[in-house]
Each structure stands twice: as C-alpha cells, then as structure tokens.
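User: I'm new to structure prediction. If I give you an amino acid sequence, what do you actually give back? Let's try with this one:
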Amino acid sequence: MASQPGMRLPAFLVASGHAMLAFDDSGTALEAAQAHARAGEIDPGLLIASLQHVRDTGWAKTCSGSRPGVTSIAAPIFDAGGRPVAAIAVSAPSEDMTAAGSEQIARHVMDRAIRISDGL
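Assistant: Good question. You get back a string of structure tokens that encode the predicted 3D arrangement of the chain. For your 120 residues, that looks like this:
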C-alpha cells in the first residue's frame, strides 16, 4: 500500500482517523460519518465500538477501512492541551496481520505516539 503526501481519506474509514475521532469532544464523529458520501461503507455500530476501543486501549485498528485487504493500526498524538492533533499509523496486508502481531505493533505505535506527544 502506498499513500501520497497530502492524501486525504475520510477519518471514519481509517485507523488514524479513529485514533483522533475517539477523543473528539464535539461528539460529531458519527454525524459526520453518516453525512459523508462514503457513509454506506461504515457500520455505525462498528464505528462506535472502534472509538470506544481506542479510548479503552489507546490504539485503533481497521481492516479494509480505506482499501480492501489492508489492516491499519494507529495511535493518537496529543498536543500540550491534551487534544488529538495527529496520529501515527502502520498498515500491512491483512493476511500478514495476526492478532498477536497487531498487539505488538500497537505497543510500538503507541510508544512512538507518546514520544511525539511529549515533544509537543
């Protein structure tokens, strides 16, 4: 999978978006997702569960979120005020991403996100 600098994807489809949306105090993530042209690609219940998972664990995971067969793991980066301003993510072919591997990658991604956040 390759992405281009400046490439934009709907936050509700990708792990990096879930990582940031989970800590959005405005509570409009679901509304924005349902109003988007690609709204049919997401199950609202799964989105809510994913955002709760991020709040519980500190990391997000999407499978075939923006591209079929791609699994992504991401963690939010917070500014000095505790607001999510970015995310760091790793993506791989879904068949290569085992549950144990996901947990290990998540720990590394969270560690890097914390280091970046601390630098802000």
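You can read the tokens as a compact description of the fold. Here is one thing that stands out. Helices lie at 15-21, 29-35, 44-57, 99-119.
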